[in-house]
Amino acid sequence: MTHISMCRRTLIATGTAAVIATGPGLVSHASAQGLAPTKSMRGGSNNYRPDAPIVKRIGGGGFLMTGSVRRADDGAPLEGIRIQVWAHTTEGHERDPWSHGATLTNADGLFQLDMPQIVPAFGQPHGHLAYDSGEFETVFLRPVMASARDTSLSAHFVLQPT
Amino acid sequence: MTVFRAIVVWSGLAGVIVVTIIVAAGSEYLQYRSATYVTAGFAGVVALALLVTQPLLASGHLPGLTMLASRRIHRWTGAVLVLAVCVHVVGLWVTSPPDMVDALTFTAPTAFSVFGVVAMWAVFATALLAGFRRKLPVRPHIWRIAHTMAATIVVIGTVAHVLLIEGTMGTVTKVLMCMVSFGALVLAVRRLRPWVGLWRGRETPSRG
Fold it and tell me: Which of B32, B37, B99 sits opposite A46 (nearest CB)?
């Protein structure tokens, strides 16, 4: 009868531990089958410039924008997807053309772009990213840095074919 | 004692405001901003400083001023406050039109925009009430409570707006200014008691 002596707290703790241990595995398995497309964030498209060129880095660099691009439903990594990045940095405002640049994803669907340090503007240290090439639905993201001192930021796209 | 109190109150108030502006002027973020953006930001800081004094001027809490002089300054400070808010909003609009449009249409991703825009409309409402006080067909009691309520929305909206923003203002001076601003409002409302006489519909002795 040892199981009866298990107190309520232990039961909850054990149960929670079991859920934590198995939970993420179950969730990631389920989501890979029906990955939902990323929705554009509020204010994501602000100061967007559709013609931003593909660049090795924006300005002098020193801050790293990273991320991934996958296809909705099956979650397959997408290669050669053009992602545009812009922000208010130590080198310019969001509206300045030289604050904008684009890059392409690699075979694993990953991208990274070196850019100047993002500084808080309009009340938050944030960056902007866009997918707007037509093959998939357009998505604008506006991730916010946890701290203005951060030297990197990431954003992830799940794109829906048009 | 009266002189001593006057010195303490005035130097305390001036000290908080001056230190706040000096700290904001020393922000490292300023070097990355255009003149328009810097001006817009400082118009906001100045508006906050003026807002701190407004309730104290309305209630005659500032020593050395007669109630008449205090109220006269209150009106002028109010006008300058409206101007500062306009410079703040227009400057930010010029700096980044889509961000300002989002804020004004309540579609911005940031909560402080909502508080800021609510405070802006409340400032305009408070000022319009003041400007048309004699022409409005309402009893003085109604006017007093309306003006006070609009001003209360200004202070609460502004405090929330200011505290949530990550910008050029220093954290310590920012929190201090917000506390003084809210404290000033409480002191003024406690002294003026704008609700008195509201339900009786009778004239009460004006404290002005």
Answer: B99
